[in-house]
Amino acid sequence: MNRYEQRQQWLQAEMIQRGWSGFLVTQNVDIYYYTGSMQTGYLFIPAEGEPLYLVRRSLERAEDEAHAAVEPLGSMKTLKERLAARYPGLLEAGAAAGGLRLATELDVLPVQQFQRLQAALPGAAWEDGSLLVREQRMIKSPDEVAAIRQAASVVDASLEAVIPQIREGMAEFELMALIEHQLRLRGHQGLMRMRAYNSELITGMVAAGASAAVPTYFDGPAGGTGLHPSSPQSSGRALLQRGEPILVDIGCCIDGYLIDQTRTLVIGGLDPELQRAYEVTEQVLRATEARLQPGTISEHLYLLALDQVQEAGLSAHFMGYGADQVKFLGHGIGLEIDELPVLAKGFKYPLAPGMVIAIEPKFTFPGRGVVGIEDTYLITETGYEKLTISREGVIVI
């Protein structure tokens, strides 16, 4: 049995426990997770029986790639009849149980598309299955971890290739272009997928000095001006100056899987206040690492970090500034940047082997810049493995 069939069977077992008749997977990333293909369409996973991948395009690609039966999507008007023909007794069993109960990912499914599904399957009761899928995806298999580990290696090699080229007076976007060039040469797919509504991310957040501390809509501690209000994040046209922190928060996507890493650079040296703040970020990271083991509750790591930065007198600058502070320390990562678990208040997930988490303590100083560090970790049976491998400390140019 391959990994896709194992994932399908795990979901089927969970559906049976909940009394769901089937799960209609609609989002590209989730379809890929369960089939190994990412063609336009719907994946129907019954509580019992073989999944069916209904594809609009490309049918040929799906037939070659997918670990599921593949058919043309056809007209939505015939969806009910086709499912009834494919799974005899499905609709009758649902009716006998008081109604057909189907799940889908309501966190990402557009309302208009959902209404089309409701019309195509009248009488079905729809459940939100998005959390179940996201919780399943929290635990990575060895092949998923291998892809993330490779992405970490690519990030490290790319950063080291670019560092000798950094110079005073270089534009932020030029530095970003150099990094992206090196990443792409080493296999970065160019995509950094996010699940949250209206969230977008380019390869990373690369900015320096005051512009790095400019807030934006992106849910992170550093914004960046971007090149235009239509893309208000990351690198802008500001020129790198001696003595200001250069935040290099970058990712890489290999075989669909992501790594997330931050390093702080400077031309010359940081002033003592920013240097001290950076040192606190490493102290927070070390204290968090000491508790990265199965059973630790994810929110406890965030609360511990809050205590540390308060003791250091830096609470006002932690993970942003003022109304733009973000309320987390880290996040799960895999096929998407914003996976579970989140290291934040209210997230009670105990750490478990197979989770991959990016931890990113940072301090934002308006008008001066952002300093911080971010590493990505695999939770193991006995503790953790750090997947990111780039050198730590403020990197002096």
UniProtKB/TrEMBL annotation:
<dbReference type="GO" id="GO:0004177">
    <property type="term" value="F:aminopeptidase activity"/>
</dbReference>
<dbReference type="InterPro" id="IPR000587">
    <property type="entry name" value="Creatinase_N"/>
</dbReference>
<feature type="domain" description="Creatinase N-terminal">
    <location>
        <begin position="7"/>
        <end position="139"/>
    </location>
</feature>
<keyword id="KW-0378">Hydrolase</keyword>
<dbReference type="InterPro" id="IPR000994">
    <property type="entry name" value="Pept_M24"/>
</dbReference>
<dbReference type="InterPro" id="IPR036005">
    <property type="entry name" value="Creatinase/aminopeptidase-like"/>
</dbReference>
<dbReference type="InterPro" id="IPR050659">
    <property type="entry name" value="Peptidase_M24B"/>
</dbReference>
<keyword id="KW-0031">Aminopeptidase</keyword>
<protein>
    <submittedName>
        <fullName>Aminopeptidase P family protein</fullName>
    </submittedName>
</protein>
<dbReference type="Pfam" id="PF00557">
    <property type="entry name" value="Peptidase_M24"/>
</dbReference>
<dbReference type="Pfam" id="PF01321">
    <property type="entry name" value="Creatinase_N"/>
</dbReference>
<keyword id="KW-0645">Protease</keyword>
<feature type="domain" description="Peptidase M24">
    <location>
        <begin position="147"/>
        <end position="381"/>
    </location>
</feature>
<dbReference type="InterPro" id="IPR029149">
    <property type="entry name" value="Creatin/AminoP/Spt16_N"/>
</dbReference>
